[in-house]
Amino acid sequence: MSPARQLPLPLPHEPSFAPEDFLASPSNAAALAMIEAWPAWPAPLMLLVGPPGAGKSHLAAIFAARAGARRLRGRDLGAIDPEAAAEGGALALDDADAVAGAEATLFHLLNFARARGVAMLMTARRPPDLWGLATPDLLSRLRLAPIVEIAAPEEELVTAVLTKLFSDRQLQVEPALVAYLARRLDRSLEAARALVEKLDVEALSQAKKVTRAMAAPFLTSREE
After folding, report:
1. Where is the domain boundary, 126, 149, 172?
2. Is residue 29 part of a domain?
3. pLDDT attached to residue 57
4. Of the residues 149, 168, 188, which one is the last residue of a structural domain?
5. Do residues 113 and 68 share a domain?
6. What does residue 166 show for φ and ψ, rounded to 5 degrees?
7. How far apart are CA 181 and CA 212, in angstroms?
8. Domain encompassing residue 198
9. Is 5 a domain residue?
10. Per-residue 3-state assignment (H helix, E strand, C coil) for 172-218
11. Distance between CA 13 and CA 165 in Å, rounded?
């Protein structure tokens, strides 16, 4: 007979976007330097590009706090008034590549921001040429913006992120196990978050601490 499993409750785990919680590393050093350089930017519109979970939203939140910026999301652009959104001194647009269906709104938002001297940070997974934009003028405008990229995370950063994620969920995991997971995990912070979420559920359902045997089924076959 299989051992009884507890039914874990889906408790929310909201990430902290406080500046002191950002884990700096060589892979994100250029992006962090760009945020800290504000308002001495080379252009009023800057693009921050990186893979999912790389810290783009965290950096956008840090920028918003520093600049007093209004925060928007690409998927919500269809519901905003671009002229009203461009009021104030700064804007942070997260997931700008999720603009499908609202290209006209984004184009007008950029025009209003430029006319009013509004500093604007946009985050996306890929450069604008890969967004599938159908508005040539919008693409031309975005191509003028300097792009700062976040590279794939180093193993040391993945280890630090795993440690923090386990701590946030109050999971006690031995450092040797964290190092083992970092070596075997796909080199992605999104993969680290997904793994910790799965192990949290598994540990609760088994009422056991996280072990290598528990983690093994969730890992890919990366070489050590």
Report:
1. 149
2. yes
3. 92
4. 149
5. yes
6. -65, -40
7. 8
8. 155-218
9. no
10. CCCHHHHHHHHHHCCCCHHHHHHHHHHHHHHHHHHCCCCCHHHHHHH
11. 10
State pLDDT tens for residues 94-113: 999 999 899 999 999 999 99
Give, rounded to a whole angstrom, the gap between the first and last alpha carbons of the chain: 35
What are the pLDDT digits (tens) for 140-158?
999 999 999 999 888 999 9
Amino acid at 71: R
Instruction: Identify whether 187 is part of a domain.
Output: yes
The continuous run of DSSP H or E covering 112 comes out as helix 103-116
Query: What does the pLDDT average to over 175-187?
Result: 91
Give Cα separations from 63 to 4, 10, 192, 216 (angstroms).
48, 31, 24, 38
Residues 177 and 142 in one domain: no
Could you tell me which residues come within 8 angstroms of residue 196 by beta carbon, excluding any fewer than 6 positions away? 162, 165, 166, 169, 171
Do 214 and 129 reside in the same domain of the chain? no
Q: Using the Cα atoms of residue 143, residue 145, residue 151 and residue 153 in order, give the sign of their dihedral.
A: negative
Percent of the chain with pLDDT over 70: 91
Cα separation of 132 and 24, whole Å? 31
Round to whole Å and give the CA distance between 64 and 112: 19
Q: Which amino acid is at 12?
A: P
Check whether the bond before 39 is cis (ω within 30° of 0).
yes
The count of domains in the chain is 2
Tokens of 87: 């009021």
